[in-house]
């Protein structure tokens, strides 16, 4: 009886209805040209669906524990990203040939500088110093660096094609290598060295379970998993509906088309950002860094293979290679990130430096 009461109370929350409302709105607006007022409403429903997705992902994460919980949200966000990129590339023509590169690079910069910097800043401001496991975080950052260089830097230097793109064989190799490295990291994170990715409090205590909060029942977790999937469908579909308005706004403002990729990345990473800040505020910096670096890794390690498969039927080339300015920003992120991760402790300065790097990236994306 108590279990049934809990389920009914759970279903009475707004987070239970928001995903369903988002999907209904998606059905009603799919394939239609939306007027400005309706675009605003759809955007509002999109934000609510994102918040609901965060809630349900956290419920599932609490049930399965760390670091599995971080993987749930990272993979969910990547599904959104891949769906948006492929959908826009199908309907966008030549303007979207570099959309995958722009979105993935933006995701790496936002996660490795924005999420990481904000998490460190919040944690350090509340407790003077943010403490995390350098072994797990260092391994994650090294993997992100490897697959980012393989997928985004090397295409600018290969000679099989004239532009910053891989040949089909090179793209296939990069996709398999990226996916393989991601799966290897997941194995290390969840099985062989799970303790490297467990939260550590400022006092040095390792937290294997969430304190003072009972985990949800299996039934409640399964309901949240189902609602999470529904919310993701709503987010992807509604984002596709408002994307023409975003592209029109970008073109109308005279901004580079790469800004569209930045907007997509910021949109799909909103759940990660909220979850990471919440974890940092609870002195769970390791959880925040798991989310940040896990999202960066999934964004490349899963998106590039998915796009490579989609290129079988998508027309036109796939431009993956970064330009000179973007390479400098990626290199600076790698150097600063390494210096941040190695000590296993950070203060507000490190958080501020990473956020400044994000600011530079956003400014140069709008004004190259």
From TrEMBL:
One Gene Ontology term, aspect cellular component: plasma membrane
GO function terms (MF aspect): potassium:proton antiporter activity; sodium:proton antiporter activity
Keywords: Membrane, Transmembrane, Transmembrane helix
Cited InterPro entries: Alkaline_pH_Ca-Antiporter, NaCa_Exmemb
Pfam families: Na_Ca_ex
Compartments, as annotated in UniProt: Membrane
Segments traversing the membrane: 14-31, 37-56, 68-92, 104-125, 137-157, 169-188, 220-238, 258-277, 289-313, 319-341, 348-366
Annotated protein name in UniProt: Ionic transporter y4hA
Organism: Paractinoplanes rishiriensis
